Amino acid sequence: MNTHAEPNPEHQHTSAHDHSTCISDALTTAEHLCAERGVQLTPIRHKVLELIWASHQAVKAYELLDRIKPLQSAAKPATVYRALDFLIEQGLIHRVESLNAFVGCRCSGHQHEQLLLICKHCHEVEERTATEVMQALSDEFKQAGFIVHSKAIEVHGICAKCAESSADNAELLA
Amino acid sequence: MNTHAEPNPEHQHTSAHDHSTCISDALTTAEHLCAERGVQLTPIRHKVLELIWASHQAVKAYELLDRIKPLQSAAKPATVYRALDFLIEQGLIHRVESLNAFVGCRCSGHQHEQLLLICKHCHEVEERTATEVMQALSDEFKQAGFIVHSKAIEVHGICAKCAESSADNAELLA
DNA sequence: AAGTGTTATGTTATACTGTAACGACAATTT
DNA sequence: AAATTGTCGTTACAGTATAACATAACACTT
Ligand SMILES: [Zn+2]
Ligand SMILES: [Zn+2]
Ligand SMILES: [Zn+2]
Ligand SMILES: [Zn+2]
N or C: which end of chain B has fewer CB within 10 A? Predict the structure, then answer.
């Protein structure tokens, strides 16, 4: 379906930051938000969120299913998709349309405009606010008379870290 | 998979222009381009392109398969996907990632940056150049050190025609 | 305690989307 | 002629997602 390379754990940029705090921050934020909103971050939903935050790479639904099965042996596709639906509704994750995959959202669970930079090499997804891009988009919509419901801007390419770590690797820059 | 409504032929805005010229223009342009490039716009590819141009709505691969079967009884999924791959390579159609669907490209078969405005109501896709958006994106990529491979910007909402024709229909503007 | 409503989950089956692999065939090149 | 290339037929399968219905868990009322 996609021309993108397979996700590759080797390409994770784990060393650049203390990722354990990414995970715990995301989880505690989610717990607080769900409590405030009176919605239930059930064990299944919590676990799916944790699995998604295991990396900054976009994760596929069936990968999640495989990973959750040891813990939740009854898990079926619907189990995962329901949890994903919930997490998306609550603004805790993004669906990456162009990958059929899911990634954690750092933006505290509010709906917001997003620019997703998706690395073809390491599959990590960087989320940026990109105020000026969004402003330019708004102008464009106004011109077109288009009423926007979602601005999920997904762009594929090579992230700064991958470009640097393989500047001599011509294939990436094609 | 998507929260979008099903494609609905009733919602096509056929009256706004002489769509028969859209189709014939697209086909003759494609024929010329392929001839120039020395690539083959075979009967199957030609037919798929024609079916895609039957409307300005994004069309799904298996819809194309159903529609081509009466004419090409041997048609299988691979038949359609191969034709789609070819047409995408030649820049004659776009893949709409967020719909898993395909739409004709008006831009004469050259690779280019695109802003696709996708109407949730009529499923028509409007392609815009959006120079300023693209410039703002370039700046953002430069800042992020991101090397872009594709800029397929897809935005979902309600098109001007649908908004107008159902201004009293609150559901659309939600 | 028993009944009721709501949300979440289990379960089965199925639909939809996309690709791999191989062989047949024709046109072109060497 | 032999090799190469491009297209298509064919089979089989992999991967993605949802429908439909049953059950469980819980909170709330009576
Ligand atoms: Zn991290
Ligand atoms: Zn990368
Ligand atoms: Zn038209
Ligand atoms: Zn519309």
Answer: C
Longest distance between any two alpha carbons in chain A, whole Å: 52
Quote the pTM value. Answer: 0.88
* Other residues' Cβ atoms within 10 Å of the Cβ of residue A48: 30
Distance CA A34, CA A15 (A): 31
B146 φψ region: left (φ > 0), alpha (ψ -120 to 50), beta (else): beta
The minimal CB distance from A160 to the residues B146, B155, B160 is found for B146
- CA distances to A130, B29, B117, B145 from A153, rounded to whole Å, are 10, 30, 12, 17
Of A98, A146, A157, the CB nearest to B148: A157
CB-based contact B84:B61 (threshold 8 Å) = yes
User: Which of A159, A169, A130, A121 minimizes the C-alpha distance to B138?
Assistant: A130
Asked if B130 contacts A136 with a C-beta cutoff of 8 angstroms, the reply is: yes
- Tell me, yes or no, if B154 comes closer than 8 A to chain A by beta carbon: yes
Nucleotides of D under 7 A from a protein CB: 6-13, 15-20
Reported CATH class of domain B9-173: mainly alpha
| Sequential DSSP letters for A124-173 | BEEEE--HHHHHHHHHHHHHHT-EEEE-EEEEEEE-HHHHHHTTT-GGGG
B100 touches strand D (CB under 7 A): no
A16-68: per-residue pLDDT in tens?
Answer: 789 999 999 999 999 999 998 999 999 999 999 999 999 999 999 999 999 99
Q: Which residues pair with A59 in a beta bridge?
A: A102
